[in-house]
Amino acid sequence: MLSEQAVPVVRATLPAVGGALDRITERFYGRLFAAHPELLRDLFNRGNQANGEQRKALAGSIAAFATTLLEHPDRRPDAMLSRIAHKHASLGVTSEQYKVVHEHLFAAIVEVLGDAVTPEVARAWDEVYWLMANALIAVEARLYQESGVTEGQVWRPMEIAERREETADTVSFVLRHADGSPAAAFRPGQYVSVRVALPDGARQIRQYSLSSAPGRPRWRITVKRVDGGPAGEVSSWLHAHAREGDTVEVSAPFGDLVLPGGDGPLLLASAGIGSTPMLAMLDHLVNTGSTRPVVVVHADRAPATHAHAAELRRLVDALPQGTLHLWYEEPGDSGARPGRADVTALDLPAGTTAYLCGPLPFLRAVRGDLLGRGTAAADIHYEVFGPDLWLGTEG
User: Fold this and answer.
1) Three-state DSSP class for 373?
2) Does residue 385 contact residue 274 with C-beta atoms inside 8 Å?
3) Which of 13, 29, 164, 204 to pair with 230, CA 20 to 30 A apart?
4) Is 390's pLDDT higher than 80?
5) Residue range 89-110: average pLDDT?
6) Closest-CA residue to 355 (of 376, 383, 335)
7) How confident is the model at residue 394 (pLDDT cuts 50, 70, 90)?
8) pLDDT given at position 393
9) Which tens digits make up the pLDDT trace of 278-294?
10) Residue 282: its H or E element
11) What is the structure's pLDDT at 388?
């Protein structure tokens, strides 16, 4: 909670700070990477830096957090904090790095806003930053403890036990510990980070959902190749170079889009490679003999681009109350509906909890349709592959 002294200052300056956040975050990252080039080389996603998405996500998170402090002083935006904390933990972020961020972020604020940053304004926004940072540090400390790892020490070598070509641009890798010990437990829907050494010496990191159920001695990830530029440098490297018997660095599992317990009805809606966490959830439901109603929606470009299509059908067929609805932009003779996914005409039981994963336009469209038909916002959960550009817009 903000102090009584800070509340009117933050309220008065939020429009100016919010309006300048894009310039502030651009200046911040420039300063940060000039002082610590190793962070861009080995921690931050160079693709998200190149396309500006990380700047937008940071600006959105700061604005959303400050707005919540003012409009709802008795609560924190826990969903937003949880999503960020899980991503940070999967990267091995440490509490000490928040001090580095603070130094360069506030220097950027002063550079952009100049004399408007009086000592009073600086103190008030310092409160905002450390309220958010300390909340994240606390959540991340709990995540590290629950995962059985030391702060920041999330990496372990894993051997590629199997490589399978799923489609022309997706490959599955089955991962195991070289000593034969079983892979760690995880919750259906979680992801791991994979870190690879690139030709220029960088060790870049990307996240991939675990695409089969927990409880097995091995993990599986499915990697879609992204062509061109820094955005696709890890997936392209894995497609070109990772083979059975090779070793890769993999993080402990994290992620807050996880299958809930109970017997309530579920909607699992995905598009493209967003199907991977849904496969783990479905696999878990089948393995545990679940009888809960499960409506599965998937959208893709065409049958040939739908990775794990046969597996998805098999898992849904194995659920006593499972139903599958497919949409392909080019369905051919597959029997799928043409065009984009439309959940408005589906028969969803009362009390359905929805889990969404896919590109941002898909998430916005499906969430909007669900809200329009009366699904409570609290019952709609989502995962974004990449920076969360939805922050502050969820309503």
Assistant:
1) coil
2) yes
3) 164
4) no
5) 96
6) 383
7) very low
8) 38
9) 999 999 999 999 999 99
10) helix 275-287
11) 55
> pLDDT for 152-207, tens place per residue?
899 999 999 999 999 999 999 999 998 889 999 999 999 999 999 999 999 999 99
CA dist 43 and 193 (Å) reads: 11
d(CA 362, CA 360): 5
Nearest to 146 by CA among 65, 252, 74, 42: 252
Say if pTM beats, i.e. exceeds, 0.85: yes
Q: Which long-range contacts (CB under 8 A, 24 or more apart) does 362-371 make?
A: 362/271, 362/272, 362/274, 362/299, 363/390, 364/390, 365/340, 365/341, 366/269, 366/297, 366/341, 369/342, 369/343, 369/344, 370/267, 370/343
Let me know if 140 is a catalytic residue.
yes
The DSSP bridge pattern shows strands 155-167 and 170-176 to be antiparallel
Q: To the nearest whole number, what is the mean pLDDT of the chain?
A: 94
Q: What is the DSSP string of 306-354?
A: -TTHHHHHHHHHTSTTEEEEEEESS-TTS-PEESS---TTS-PPTT-EE
The pair phi, psi for residue 241, each rounded to 5°, is -120, -30
- Distance, in Å, from the CA atom of 294 to the CA atom of 322, rounded to the nearest integer, reads 5
Distance of CA 294 to the CA centre of its chain: 23
- E strand residue ranges, the chain: 155-167, 170-176, 191-197, 203-209, 219-224, 247-251, 266-271, 294-300, 322-328, 337-338, 353-357, 380-383
Residues 29, 53, 129, 140: which is the catalytic one?
A: 140
CB 245 within 8 A of CB 157: no
Mean pLDDT of 101-116: 96
Q: 143: which 2 tokens?
A: 């995540």
Mean pLDDT of 127-138: 96
d(CA 210, CA 213): 8
Per-residue pLDDT band at 389 (split at 50, 70, 90): very low
Catalytic residue among 98, 144, 355, 382: 98
pLDDT of residue 189: 96
pLDDT at 384 over 80: no
**Mutual orientation of helices 78-91 and 119-147 as an angle, nearest 10°?**
60
* Buried b or exposed e, range 275-291, using 16+ CB within 10 angstroms: bbbbbbbbbbbbbeebe
The interaxial angle of helices 6-35 and 96-113, nearest 10 deg, is 110
Strands 203-209 and 337-338: unpaired
